[in-house]
Amino acid sequence: MASLLAAFTAAAQSPAFITFDSAHVRPLALSPDGTRLFAVNTPDNRLEVFSVTSAGLSLIAEVPVGLEPVAVAARSNSEVWVVNHLSDSVSVVSLIGTPRVVRTLLVGDEPRDIVFAGTQGHAFITTAHRGQHRTDASIAGVPGAGDPQLTTPGVGRADVWVFNPASLGATLGGTPVRIVTLFGDTPRGLATSPDKKTVYAAIAQSGNQTTSVNLDSVCDGFNERGLCLVFPDTFPFGNNLLPGGLPGPSTNFEGAKAPETALIVKWNQAAGQWQDPTGRNFNNGVRLRLPDKDVFAINADTLQETAFFTGVGTTIFNLATNPRSGVIYASNSEANNLTRFEGPGEYGGTTVQGNLAQMRITVISGGSVFPRHLNKHIDYAKLAGKPGFDPTVKNHSLSTPTEMVVSQDGTKLYVAAFSSSKIGVFDTAALESDSFNPRTASANYIPVSGGGPSGLVLDEARNRLYVMTRFDNAVKVIDLATKGELSSVPLYNPEPASVVQGRPFLYDADFSSANGEASCASCHIFGDKDELAWDLGNPDAPVTRNPISKRLASDLEIGIFRTFTRHPSSPINGTGNQNQFHPMKGPMTTQTLRGMTNGGAMHWRGDRSNGFFGVDARAEDLSFKNFIVAFPELLGRASMPTEAEMNKFTSFQLQVQLPPNPIRRLDNSLTASQKAGSDFYFGSRRVDGIAIGDDNGFNCNGCHVIDGAQGFFGTDTGASFEGISQIMKIPHVRNMYTKVGMFGFPDNSFFMHPETGQMGDQIRGFGYTHDGAVDTLFRFFSAIVFSNTSIGGPLVGFRNDTERRQMEDFMMAADSDLAPIVGQQVTLTAATAAAVGPRIDLLIARARAPFASKILGGATYEADLVAKAAVGNRVKGFLYERALGTWKPDDGGANLSTTALRALANTAGQEVTFTAVPPGSGRRIALDRNLDGRLDGQ
């Protein structure tokens, strides 16, 4: 009991709010009769219900739902469905009697959007092709359910879960009719045809048919015309002739030799070639195809895919259809990652400055695809501060176009420009014909206060537009006759002030760039990844010092390795100095901006450890602030932000966390294969280096340290020499499962496994390692640095492919800052007691299970457990108190036993929803919403 109370004390010190900053998809909905407006309150985990009258909006109900709600759809005037991104669930809310959740449907990982369609009014929900419920025994017989096949080539990674609302079943989380898998990498937006017979689904990060040619497949020496052969040439033979080295320059402006790196290539359909920026054919360096399926059509009754559309965009935000013509509109951005370098582009000759991703609405009509650049008035050749640049250009720009709505007569389209604090307004005929001029069309744009417009509802009966603004967590009422803002209705926001104040610096393109199009979120999509690699070196920048502590990186260790293996074939870091950062670094995949606290220096090499604000090998705040130079050099801002602005940005971003792992079992246990991989990871056998000497070799955990109490989940902030051309900082391993989908690799002498041969259609062009060139973790673990037949000898490295597969399985389920149970929920009803009872038992058990995570204050528990039930004309909250094993109510009354709490559900209208929330958040979510000491029910 003493140890339990000690842990309880630690848990009480956990933060009361964890920032996830989940992206809105469809945050607003209007009831069919137009009398109610529904809004998701993402940080407060609620559905807000407003009465709509000519006088405006009046709040009439607030319904607790799952964690991080991002989309809402009204099934009828009295039933609303809410998509909960972190809880992997859908809350079915009834407005009859006390507004409340009457059923919780469990779906795949990170659901995003929902629509109703078909003759039976099926519900369609987009999710990633993973998540614990996908393999739950309760839906084993559902078509499409089961193993997500994370290590299988050619598998779609985008799911649409389909439910029949009239027949949800009495299973744990409802019984879907089917799970439709699409050949893409995680879906986002949905739309329906005007007749509701077709559902359209868009892939979020669908890519742009670019991939990385690995280092060995690019000839040495920066010779664009010299051919070379890659050895060994394994079956199929004769495809190892490559067309030359990296495009120049071979040095930076100081004359310091650049490192040899991978190279980004793009598929040229007309030529039938994978071409680099100079147009050379690198087909022999690629072993996959990228069909680039962006938007899919699904028959709403048969639930079969009927069509797909390519070339829509790199990142697709939302879909809408024209109610008259049926034309589809897709808001998106198109990445420019084939262009090399940031900076002024003087010494290198090219730059992406201010031109990272073009913001578009793509028109899909008659089976054809027509991209429309919303900012075609921008002259990207004229950089900010240079002669000829027009500083007024940003006045006409729109950035991060998200949700769209179309007038009932089909003539006008409204689009929320999340990064511009504007609503774009377009004549649909002009948009479709591409005849609009942004400089004149911008006169019709509607400015909105608060920032981050993320959702729209058109109320044509009142000639109004309702706009969700995420930065200030509010709903704006716009008079369409005057384009004036009639009112701003704030939603209760539990976020710390520092989160609210710092969020705009990630997204606001008007602040971030001189042309109003580029922001940090142009690549770090909603603070995460765009699933691409970019070559953002800067030949006009100097070589700097690398202060990070390094493993296996002495002159002797590097020299011996190069002598015995001939890797790397060029001097380390280009200059031969392992303690330097060369400004020309080659392709690097976009890293997430989530979960960066406790991770040390930033960027793949850790090069932000040395920058504008100083040098520190381990300080995350300084490293993040050193990104200040990216505003002018990459985003194209006319000047750098102030230090005060960077402090606000840093404070916000370092609070944003990664979600729980969706592959690991909910009871936090490992499968037999994962456990074997974990035992190897933490075991005594060294996998890198040599077998003798304390600092000459390491087990997996010796480099990729996992220690939750210290906040280490794969990195302890150090760096290492791993046989490649640059010294890399050791990265975290929490999101390996998100990088699945690239299968295919050419001849290469750095890996023990042979080439794959042509693998055909895959969904991703970038996989693992810093440059995204390695297709699978299984191949990564066959690198010569991890082999027991290489320089380390038989006592070091993986002994066989079984161990490699087991390690791959463990990495997919690797430890993270939050336990996998966090966010999970279930609703108990009289009809579902038998199916739901064991899950409630699991939630209680995990709420009592010890856990360690630095972001949660150290020693704590896996989760706090809350319950909500409609009792006495309101939704009442309960918090599970571990020490007593009972439930504290939010009105200060006597605690209830678990049996008594469950018994509430036996009464009609008193469904009980249990939710596992982050440790420390329980009191706020269950009992005291604003933490003022007065309980919510008092």
In short:
This protein has 17 helices and 53 strands. With 938 residues, the protein is an alpha+beta fold.
Describe the structure.
This protein has 938 residues and is of the alpha+beta class. Helices cover 13% and strands 27% of the residues. The chain contains 17 helices and 53 strands. The strands form 17 sheets. A 5-stranded antiparallel beta sheet has the order 47-53-50-51-52. Strand 7 (89-94) and strand 8 form a beta hairpin. The longest helix has 15 residues, at 833-847. Residues 1-12 have low confidence and may be disordered.
Feature tags:
single chain; 938 residues; alpha+beta; five-stranded antiparallel β-sheet; 17 helices; 53 strands; 13% helix; disordered N terminus
What is the count of helical runs? 17
Rounded to the nearest angstrom, the distance between the terminal CA atoms is: 32 Å
- Principal-axes shape call: globular
Q: Helix share of residues?
A: 10-25%
Assembly category: single chain
Give the overall average pLDDT: 97
Which structural class do the helices and strands define? Answer: alpha+beta
Low-confidence stretches: 1-12
For the secondary structure, the number of strands is 53
Major beta-sheet overview: 5 strands, antiparallel
Radius of gyration: 27 Å
Strand order, sheet with most strands: 47-53-50-51-52
β-sheet strand percentage? 25-35%
